[in-house]
Amino acid sequence: MPQNISLDKLKIGDLAKINAIQSADIPAKFYELGFYPGSVIEIKHKAPLSGPICVNIIENNALIAIRKSEAKLIIAELI
Predict the structure, then answer these.
(1) Residue range 36-43: mean pLDDT, rounded
(2) pLDDT, tens digit, for every residue of 3-36?
(3) Which residues form the Ferrous iron transporter FeoA-like domain (predicted)?
(4) How far, CA to CA in Å, does 64 sit from each of 1, 2, 45, 48?
């Protein structure tokens, strides 16, 4: 059974499929960049403490840095 986890809990190198976004407060730009349910992502870099997380969106090969607070709202399952 797949385990749902927020993006901030994933490790560098993890591949995951986005299942849900838990808040309507996520900017529409995230959807435009490819953060939507069904998207496959890879965690590329994580800054220490509460720094940003660099995510590769596999479908369009885009590297996007997001705040840890935003990553907590994006739920995915490891693949």
Answers:
(1) 95
(2) 899 999 999 999 999 999 887 777 777 888 888 8
(3) 5-78
(4) 29, 25, 10, 17
- By the 8 A CB rule, do 62 and 40 touch? no
Q: What pLDDT is attached to residue 29?
A: 79
Per the CB < 8 A criterion, the answer to whether 54 and 64 are in contact is yes
How buried is residue 71: exposed, middle or buried, by Cβ count under 10 Å (0-12/13-18/19+)? buried
- Using a 10 angstrom Cβ sphere, with 0-12 exposed, 13-18 middle and 19 or more buried, the burial of residue 7 is buried
Q: Which two tokens stand for residue 34?
A: 């490819």
Q: What is the CA radius of gyration of the chain?
A: 11
Q: For residues 55 and 41, is the Cβ–Cβ distance under 8 A?
A: yes
